[in-house]
Amino acid sequence: MTARSNIRLQTWVLAAGVLLMAIKFVAWWLTHSTSILSDALESIVNVVAGAFALYSLYLAAKPRDREHPYGHGKVEFISAGIEGGLVVLAGAMIIWRAMEALLREQHLHDLGTGIGLTAAAGGLNLLMGLALQKRGKDAHSITMEASGTHLLSDAWSTVAMLVGLVVIQLTGLLWLDQVFAIAFAVFIIITGLRVFRRSVAGIMDEADLKLAADVIATLEQHRVPQWVDVHNFRMIGYGPVLHIDCHVTLPWYYSLEQAHAEISAIERLVNEVHEREVELFIHMDPCIPTSCAICALEGCRERKMPFQQRVKWDAASVLGNAKHGIAS
């Protein structure tokens, strides 16, 4: 799955977003419904966020350079944060517009036509949101996932809004239009805050403990006796690429060539098992006498004490910054 295909998909989504925005504003012009206006205003956010998402995907796809040795992938977190902020802003605008409408008399027109147009737009949003979320998860792109989540929240909110408009059409209670608009606004504000929270976590290099545990489990499953210990394990993501720092304890008497071969074996293992590109920076530590108790390497002529037990590598034992040993 190439970056070019991701950019192409996002381009189509942006073009469709412009069309949907026009349809929703036509529906509002026909009906004068605050709920439909709220949906249309949120579509402006969709278009602006979609445009920035497209630009961020273009930047993230650029190769590394001297100024950006880790690549440009982190721009995706910025894009997701901006999108989350715009969603929150749109929700606040909707609430303000609904409160204003409650204070004056409102007349609704052509609800049937407006409901039909809005339903069609919501259905297309649903399809685009599902496609973007799937592609984002497959490509490990937070930008595409955020766009997909945004469009899905828009689609489900449209469903709730349409139910409200049908109720208004059946009951004649026009004030319900404002109530449904405010409820819709609260929902998208919560969605926006969640997207913003995830983007901040990425910018702050918050650890993905589940993903780290998966990588550590791979090392545990395929470990060999000469890999005496692993500790100080840290992992951050730059777009689709994972960067891992860790310390690996090897027998102190290994030559530089032997030690390099073991480190290369660890790098190959992680990249072969995990679908994401993984870049490892491994610090080699020599074993010390207290390491003998957890070292299962047979035939070691430098052993200072007998092997006692193997330390299981998991998130609890590997994330700490200390060599392991057996307490006396």
Architecture overview:
- With 328 residues, the protein is mainly α.
- The protein folds into two domains: 3-203, Up-down Bundle (Alpha-lytic protease prodomain-like), CATH 1.20.1510; 209-318, Cation efflux protein, cytoplasmic domain (Alpha-Beta Plaits).
- 63% of the residues lie in helices and 9% in strands.
- The chain contains nine helices and three strands; from the N terminus they run H-H-H-H-H-H-H-E-E-H-E-H.
- A three-stranded mixed sheet has the order 1-2-3, covered by helices on one side.
- A hairpin with a 2-residue loop joins strand 1 and strand 2.
- The protein starts with a helix and ends in a 10-residue tail after the last helix.
- The model has no long low-confidence stretch (mean pLDDT 80).
Give a topology summary.
Blueprint (H helix, E strand, L loop, with lengths): L2 H29 L2 H27 L14 H28 L8 H29 L2 H30 L4 H28 L5 H14 L6 E10 L2 E10 L5 H18 L4 E9 L28 H4 L10
Parallel strand pairs: 2-3
Antiparallel strand pairs: 1-2
Helix pairs in contact: 1-2, 1-4, 2-3, 2-5, 2-6, 3-5, 3-6, 4-5, 5-6, 7-8
